[in-house]
Amino acid sequence: MSEKTLSHLQTVTESLESGATMQIRYLLNGALPAQDVARLLESSPPKERKLLWELIDSKNEGEVLQYLSEDIGVQFMKEMDTERLVAVSEHFESDDLADLLQHLPETVVKEVLSSMTAQDRTRVEALLSYSEDSAGGLMNTDTITIRPNITVDIVFRYLRRHSSLPDMTDNLLVVSRSDRLLGTLTLTKLLVSDPEDTVRDIMDTDCTVINADTPASEVAQLFEKMDLVSAPVIDGDSKKLLGRITIDDVVDVIRDEAEHSMLSMAGLDDDEDTFSPILKTTKRRAVWLGINLITAFIASYVIGLFQNTLDQVVALAILMPIVASMGGIAGSQVLTLVIRGIALNQIGSTNAKWLLNRELIVGMINGLLWASVIAALTAIWFDNIKIAYIIAGATIINLLFAATTGTLLPIFLKKIGIDPALAGSVILTTVTDVVGFLSFLGLATIFLV
Fold it and tell me: pTM of the full predicted structure?
């Protein structure tokens, strides 16, 4: 959050406490841009958020809603009647409106659609037929299309009839009479062309085109690779133009994927609202705490198998967490790297073996290095060279297992359709804990008892 937003938030909080609602109403309905109002709502606890929303004039609700996160925006829209929903929907681009409608009851969606003009309804219904995580769900149907047989002069006259062009318009889409995409004509090329040239002569037929069923993550990678501002979306079978995707939507995808990866590794929902209610937050986190409890019992069970060994050599209980901790950190480093590689489509069957060998070698080198340090410190601390050798051996074993698990686990999870970011860290922690305890206490049982 910017310093400016923090300052506004403090002003609003102080005004709420003093009851100066007129000042808050002034801030929310003109003094602040809609983007800042949305940030204020997202940065407020539920009770204050509801009060602030009630102070926003109905004519400004739609503009603020389009900048709110999807989770919070849907909460407010669910509390609106159909008439208000219809009014606020006028402020949304068709793709953003379709994303929100997917989270509302079907009866409400039908009423909102029936209140729209035939053209707007057709556009939104087309978007609703696609998953919000696909190119079809990302695209906007508001496009400028032209025919290939007209001249540049006619194109200029056609554009002048528009009061404004759609946002992020960097090219015009050339289509046939059946709306089949033929190519694109960039605005820069249009400006420098002879007025008598035809569109067919100057258009680009080798343009980047996206199939409507393409996953959103692949769309983001394509925009990054090709440095695109916008790209046409077509139906894969008929090649018919459906709409276009713009860079602002792709930025949202990249941000959402980054948040998803970060929160999933902590077992949190990527729609998690920082200020969501207590019960809602508790339910979301309880599941992963339960899963973690199960894995903790598994590790404790392994320790219990060596109770007699621990009773005889107390030093083992003191040193035991070191082995598990080293394996956990090493495994997390590899896991994060591989998950990133998978997200960027850099890892496949052709290079997975090389990556595994690299990580095993790195694990062995680090294992030898830090096993020597741990062994030396252990020998000095407990004056027992056998325990020093045992913890060194266990550290090397666990780091090698961590490298193997960290490399292969996300690849395997991805193959069977499970999100590696969501489940990888939990499984990895269990493996490194179990292997760490098993190797350390197992070696101690063999050589000490």
Answer: 0.69
